[in-house]
Amino acid sequence: MTRTPVPAPSVDALRHVVDGRWANVRDETREEMGRHGLSADPDFTSEQYRAWVLEALKVLVASGRPHTGFDPSVGGKGDVGGVVTSFAMLAYGDLSLLVKAGVQWGLFGGAVQVLGTARHHDRYLRSIIDGELLGCFAMTETGHGSDVQHLHTTATYDRATEEFVIDTPHPGARKDYIGNAARDGRMAVVFAQLVIGDQKPGVHAFLVPLRDENGTVLPGVEVTDDGRKAGLNGVDNGRLAFSGVRIPRENLLNHFADVAADGTYSSSIENETARFFTMLGTLVRGRISVAGGAGAAAQKALTLAIRYGEQRRQFTNPSTGEETAVLDYLVHQRKLLPALATSYALQFTQDDLVARMHEIQAPGKPKAGAREQRQLEQSAAGIKAIATWHATATIQTCREACGGAGYLEENLLPALKADTDVFTTFEGDNTVLLQLLAKELLSDYGRTIKKGNPLGIAPLLGRQLASVGAERTGLASLLRRIPGVALDLGDRKRRTALLRTRREDTLATAIRHLAPAMRKGNDEFAVFNASQDLLLTAARAHVDALVEESFRNAIVRTTESSERGTSMGTDASVKGLLERVYDLHVLSVIDRERAWYLETGRLTAAESQTIRPLVNELCVELRPHARLLTDAFGIPEGWLSAPMLDGPAPLPVEAGVADVVAAG
Amino acid sequence: MTRTPVPAPSVDALRHVVDGRWANVRDETREEMGRHGLSADPDFTSEQYRAWVLEALKVLVASGRPHTGFDPSVGGKGDVGGVVTSFAMLAYGDLSLLVKAGVQWGLFGGAVQVLGTARHHDRYLRSIIDGELLGCFAMTETGHGSDVQHLHTTATYDRATEEFVIDTPHPGARKDYIGNAARDGRMAVVFAQLVIGDQKPGVHAFLVPLRDENGTVLPGVEVTDDGRKAGLNGVDNGRLAFSGVRIPRENLLNHFADVAADGTYSSSIENETARFFTMLGTLVRGRISVAGGAGAAAQKALTLAIRYGEQRRQFTNPSTGEETAVLDYLVHQRKLLPALATSYALQFTQDDLVARMHEIQAPGKPKAGAREQRQLEQSAAGIKAIATWHATATIQTCREACGGAGYLEENLLPALKADTDVFTTFEGDNTVLLQLLAKELLSDYGRTIKKGNPLGIAPLLGRQLASVGAERTGLASLLRRIPGVALDLGDRKRRTALLRTRREDTLATAIRHLAPAMRKGNDEFAVFNASQDLLLTAARAHVDALVEESFRNAIVRTTESSERGTSMGTDASVKGLLERVYDLHVLSVIDRERAWYLETGRLTAAESQTIRPLVNELCVELRPHARLLTDAFGIPEGWLSAPMLDGPAPLPVEAGVADVVAAG
């Protein structure tokens, strides 16, 4: 089968669509970044690198960008979505700088803003925004990373002096991996178990000074350096231990709960666990920012590897007598192009996620309902996990696709790999996040049942019964009679249906396996534990469907703006190209999961075997557009300067190769 | 289903089996290493690290170990297998030291030994062995990495002076990524196109001096530093360019070909390509050593992650009220234990591979036939690819399984990751190696056809026809009637048959897709290119079957030595445990490839769905033995010293959990 070749849109038209809602912020950020071209020396010692990052932070302050995310009351613009978008673009440059900025303004500044009240905002936010007061976000402890509700640091109220006393009861309770702690931080938002006499109302956040204006560590505070890390060595991560450190009562960040002078505790949220998760929920911005940074890093790696793949030639084609560009090899295309398609999908997903956050968190917006907030947190958890794993795998692949050149720091891939590696386990370990998401999905399911909503459940249960039958009898073909699924695999609607079906069925399977946990006498933990892999599968399938939906909607928006004839700079060829990219992304997902589709009878063996040639065909079709697709990310050229790309100009892409492969 | 718990053997008995043929060398190496405990500072600049490695190299010289691999004629022991085994164990310690040693004695010294003759051996080998003459192996060029037959450096014979003139015609022909080049190397084995007047008999190897005794670079030689790399920064990689560098005629390494004083060229191998690949083939030791180093690195990562997983507790089990060790979570087990099982499989595979090399290369052995040599090269290529990808993926998983702690250099995982990352693309890019293997398998198939050997082909073609039919009609269940396949999946024989079937069928599928290339008028390159993914699949399936065979044979040997009542220190519980590890490895492979088994009708949907619970069950069964299984690698404790392991003692493993999961 030979399809009509896809015409190439202009890079500007494509970039406009890729840039999405915060296109203006992206352009401004590109311009700001292009002007400074901040690049660190890869042979820096940790100390040299930290000093460099601290200087670079001042450049960011001067740009005025960090202000824009804060409330207008403290001189900001309240552009929550814009600042997260701009922040993620720092991943095109130096990732230590990104993380240092994230710690300072996102985590530390963000916690003061959302967990604190006017007394904290007035006193600290301006100097935080201006980078005069550098601070830490001290939540994780050596012994408690994922399970932060049970951390061990204590804040004991002393009514006599109206102070809290902060203590680290044992070495496992040291705050660990804390950015800004080892060298620069003068204050920390410390999460600790609040103790008021016999009352222990759970984890709260406190402002604790760490160093004086000269940088000398204050009495009772013990700082140790986490030392050299796999990457991000421009960030001064360290451990903090407290011994009888006294802070005024006013240093409790009291947006959700307060302690009166006499020790009376009050909170707008009665349940301790609910309160804790509400506090955590307001910090969702960090997780979303990490997903964005991971996305940008993967885009940069793909841009480098695709440029190299167009230029690098290896082995002579006996038909032409010329050496072949490595990106003309099918296996090379299969390494890079499906990953590129998924990067597109995640770009649109991230834009949607940021927009949802903006609608909830930006000042002046109506207060979000618990449901919207919860769904935002769920999506953020799932997308963070999938986006960071995508980055880790993609950057690894790009490194390998550039061979020895990809191993040299001068060619930028090593730092991308090393610096982003921790993204999969910080701001929530990915595996834990997906489990949280799965449990939330189970709860939502439970709530739907309670409401007796037949619309929400009937299809799920119906398919579930069919699926159980298929599992038992192997009569898989029966299932294909389900309406909306029994179409040709080349059909976009069928593929969308396949992703949706998987989301529903994997959840149903997890529910069925968990059912025994509800029965008396069964060990609930053991049943949950034995079903953990099914929970992860359900969560993954849920995110896959979310991502597909964002990509699909982005294409619909493109069509609409084309049809309206608006001046958004889009055109039909943008849509045509994006549709092929969308196809490749969705088929890659189905390809990855095709064992599941076969096992559950959603695909026949014959259908499954058509996936490989379809993916190959799409790779060949998109090969001529690979460079354009990466150019549309709009990464400043100064941050793509790699000696491995200083070779001869790329060969012109030959027509004809596509036809041969498509015919095979 | 609840199976009898597996009894634990002693660590010594298990280690004896794991140590294999060169157990004595392993013990000696452990003792040598334990004495020195060489560990670099992770915050070294490249220059500091290089100086440290150079000093550490002297410790290796003093140990006498490098001597043992060379011929007795130059003071060695000819223990080719032993030295490769010992060398790979350096990966337990510092990988820069491993690579520096590999460059000096394996690549540089090895090339002088196997490509040179007495005049080179007598003059250079002793000082190479003693580390007095440090050297390079200068094959790869900036423009030619994988396709080294077409590199561009020239060695032009000047009859007047009886010299070769070495030249780098353009920047793309610079030797690149060359270890020992940037700082320490005084001589290089340079691969160059030989030119004698109009005659160009292909690539040959020449000894070219680079620096004088004071380390000053010689005239005509240009050295540039490759700079900081992702890892291995203790190795001084660099680029070499030559401009009219004259070397005496005797510096041609003339084992396979020579140039007489009058310029007459002679060689024992007439065909140029055959000669080049024969020369390359003698260097197979490097590839085998990389596979061994990768295996050891993965073992170390697993040892660290499993110790941490036993000790690290997170989240409270509501049934017990205690926090759960993370290795008691099923998802954590599924991350680490199948990888551990595969590490066992690869350990036995590597031991077999080294033994085969030893039988061919060690002095005093009968000269190997072309077939044995070719098969050794095939296996080495395939196993190198699979072992290094396993290491990359496993170390990544182990890093993530240790969370933030795994990101700190002090906990050793970051260096393991960064240093071994290049293993997948050096000593042959993995993707290229698997393609070479696949093409060799196709050639072998062609040779079998030519010989008219019905035994070799009939089964393959028979299954092939059946398979084609299944692909076309979807009547997959027919296939299960093939003898030896239609057994219960829990049956070991069935599983072995599944791996073997896949090896044969994937090759047959590749052959069928390549057939059009033989027809006139078709573009051979395009057809091959469009089938590249099928070739990779066939190569991968071939290696999977090789690995399974090595593991199975190792268990058989264990049984035999038990039955003979020899004093090999084995016992029945070793065998019992290894069988479960074998089961987990083989099931993991089938699990990974189950889409293929479903598509080709080798597994029904119902059968495929039993894989997940089987893998889960084996994980739970092996969980109590995880620590023992890693202890049996015998990694010197000094090289496992990580602060993250200085926590509380691990919880005792509870019986009972296994039963619950097995019952689910």
Automatic annotation (TrEMBL), chains A, B:
Q: What Enzyme Commission number(s) does the record list for this chain?
A: 1.3.3.6
Q: Which Gene3D superfamilies match?
A: Butyryl-CoA Dehydrogenase, subunit A, domain 2, Butyryl-CoA Dehydrogenase, subunit A, domain 3
- Keyword Flavoprotein annotated: yes
Q: Name one GO biological process term.
A: lipid homeostasis
Q: Where in this chain does the record put each Acyl-CoA oxidase C-alpha1 domain?
A: 281-442
Q: Which GO terms describe its molecular function?
A: acyl-CoA oxidase activity; FAD binding; fatty acid binding
Instruction: Keyword check for Cell cycle, yes or no.
Output: no
Where is this protein chiefly located?
A: other
Q: Where is the Acyl-CoA oxidase/dehydrogenase middle domain?
A: 136-245
Q: Where in or outside the cell is it found?
A: Peroxisome
Its needed co-factors are: FAD
For this UniProt record, give its keywords in alphabetical order, as a comma-separated list. Answer: FAD, Fatty acid metabolism, Flavoprotein, Lipid metabolism, Oxidoreductase, Peroxisome
Report domain Acyl-CoA oxidase C-terminal positions: 504-643
As for family, the record states: Belongs to the acyl-CoA oxidase family.
Protein's UniProt name: acyl-CoA oxidase
